[in-house]
Design brief:
Layout (H helix, E strand, L loop, with lengths): L7 E6 L5 E7 L19 E5 L2 H7 L5 E6 L3 E5 L13 H7 L7 E2 H4 L11 E7 L2 E6 L5 E6 L9 E5 L5 H4 L8 E3 L6 H10 L17
Parallel strand pairs: 3-11
Antiparallel strand pairs: 1-2, 2-5, 3-4, 4-10, 5-6, 7-8, 8-9, 9-10
């Protein structure tokens, strides 16, 4: 199910709230088109991913992502020096984690290729050439995937693990995945499992949504 055509903001973050993000999505006609589509698929999109690398990296047999242009995403990372042990929350730590007092920065400044800053809990891992994955160094939550550079015609993208979206947003019916990607690389029993209950979502052999598996 595609995202609503009206503007909306999707919020989320890691389990310990040291890292928070928000995706500010404009009205449908202001959203970029998927470069490998028929002109009808807009970004961000929510997808089920069957690729082997993401299955291992997320630890999920059915990884789900919200794939967003980086320019729509902002993030806030708690500084290690401001944090108290999770088992001993302090007033200062709670204040730092409050949404209204956090310092927000464009995602392009936070989720950069190369080593992550040691000042915050955001940690990065280069899983393959040109690919950076991030996770929280305090609670271990897997957060994002980014390729640098993107293929020709693509905007800078940040794929965010769908399970990190806040529950109040995730409960929206429109957060249901709208398609499968990398279907040809899927595990047989997993594909059969999702086929039985996905309601007939389109299936794509890789990342090009113009190509379909019948």
């Amino acid at each position: 199910m595609p995202l609503p055509s009206t503007p909306l903001t999707i919020r989320g973050g890691c389990n310990c709230r040291a890292i928070r993000f928000q995706i500010s999505i404009p009205a449908l006609l202001q959203r970029p088109l998927h470069p490998w589509s028929d002109g009808e698929v807009h970004l961000p999109m929510v997808a089920i991913d069957h690729c082997n690398d993401c299955r291992r990296a997320t630890g999920s047999v059915i990884p789900l992502w919200i794939c967003a242009p980086t320019e729509l995403v902002s993030a806030s990372c708690l500084r290690r020096s401001d944090a108290s042990p999770p088992t001993e929350p302090s007033t200062a730590n709670a204040a730092a984690e409050a949404e209204g007092t956090r310092r927000w920065r464009p995602a392009a400044e936070v989720f950069q290729p190369g080593p992550a800053s040691s000042e915050t809990f955001l940690t990065s891992y280069h899983s393959s050439e040109g690919v950076t994955r991030t996770f929280c160094g305090r609670c271990g939550t897997n957060l994002t995937y980014a390729r640098h550079p993107m293929p020709h015609g693509w905007p800078a993208m940040l794929d965010i693990v769908l399970g990190t979206v806040d529950r109040e947003d995730l409960e929206g019916e429109w957060m249901q995945p709208e398609r499968h990607c990398w279907w040809d690389r899927g595990i047989g029993w997993v594909r059969r499992l999702v086929e039985a209950g996905d309601g007939g979502l389109p299936r794509h052999p890789a990342a090009k949504v113009t190509e379909r598996v019948e």
